[in-house]
Hints:
Elements lengths: L1 E8 L3 H12 L4 E5 L6 H6 L1 H19 L15 H25 L3 E4 L1 E6 L2 E5 L5 E11 L3 E3 L12 E2 L1 H4 L8 E5 L3 H12 L3 E5 L11 H13 L3 E3 L2 E9 L2 E8 L5 E6 L1 E4 L3 E3 L6 H4 L22 E3 L10 H17 L11 E3 L4 E6 L2 H6 L4 E7 L4 H6 L5 E7 L5 E8 L2 H13 L4 H5 L10 H10 L7
Parallel strand pairs: 1-2, 1-6, 2-3, 6-17, 8-15, 9-10, 9-15, 10-11
Antiparallel strand pairs: 4-5, 5-6, 7-16, 12-13, 13-14, 18-19, 19-22, 20-21, 21-22
Helix pairs in contact: 1-9, 3-4, 3-6
Amino acid sequence: MEAYDLVVIGSGPGGYIGAIRGAQLGLKTAVIEKDKTYGGTCLNVGCIPSKALLQSSEFYHEAQHDFASHGIKLESVKLDLAAMMARKNKIVSDLTGGIEFLFKKNKITGIKGTGKIINANTVEVTDANGTAVQISAKNIMIATGSVPVELPFLKFDEKKIVSSTGALALDYVPKELIVVGGGVIGLEMGSVWARLGSKVTVIEYADKICSMMDQDCINVLIRSLKKMGMSFLTSTKVTGSRSVGGRVELSYESVTDGKKASIEGDVVLVSTGRKPYTDGLGLENVGVEKDERGRVKINDHYQTNVPNIFAIGDVTFGPMLAHKAEEEGVAVAEIIATGHGHVNYNTVPSVIYTHPEVSSVGMTEEQAKAAGIEPATGKFLFAANGRAKARGATEGFVKIVTDKKTDRIIGGHIVGAASSEMLGEIIVAMEFGGSSEDLARSFHSHPTMSEVIREAALAVDKRQRQG
């Protein structure tokens, strides 16, 4: 058997980034991937293709509704959905192919096939032809990610009833799209198809959309999405479905009063969450423990109850985010090679890549209060910013949350155009234990959108100078 210091099962962001760090630290490393291309959900059917479609659909919408105010008049705007999808596919192909280059550059062995743990130091890989080989591993990293949750009465056919994968590959614009689940995926994909012409209805079981994020930000987003034509049914439970003349009819009821109704759509996107992917992984062969939610149990060093088997990313605890998995993959490689590795979970950002974007890090005001911290906040609107006015991007605001006693920044929340790009400044400040005073006294180029961050920091002490 070929022997490796580290065998990674899964080549998503956590797996391939962790593998690269392991190779950089001198570990002989192999990565096993069951799909035809590397990159996992994120690069193939998640983060990357969805952002490509979000960008394209935003351009289409702007050309229809915003260009005229800039003095750019178009006789007509036509949608070429096939070209839009082809662009998305090329971006995916370029990036997944790039991982193969990175493996070669870092002398990582990429193995295509399904990985199964036979014992604590052996992994069996079965390729598409059914041929199985075994490899030896001093350490194993489980990075198999997650898959969409399927409802019993809404089985995926990826044509009429679709997961996020199917929603990224529709070859026509549905006249009516129903989104079951008002989380990040539902809002992002719903907004894509709404901009391209679908009438979109979002059905959410909870009484709030994205309740864990700053609700002031979410309120701005929902207003914007409603303005674009999307509608929302909250506190609503879907109870069944049936096919009606080539369309899908959903029955639902109110969680608050039990009132029943139904709705029809051409396509139903089920985005009610994701679950860890551990099927056929062979965890039972070595007794690796899982929790009640099917997640692999780990300790503070990402070790399972089998010490040389580690788990990261969606397959274990915490938010299912690519960047969180990346940092965990790096931490595992460093723990194996040096004995040290760390992830600061207080600064893991969350983003909804709609338009406007909602970006968040750390605590909301409510979460701070629940943790026994008295918060102080500063808030500043993009509407008072010169660059935002010039760009026509005046929607939204920046909110800084601090510990009132120390002025240390404990949270940052932004709703606005490209807010995900601006959030990094707040994250870096938090990593260094920075205060709102630190941000308030830092130069920001003028005129820029990021000046709103400085003004929000000044607003913590009621010192904002604009607006």
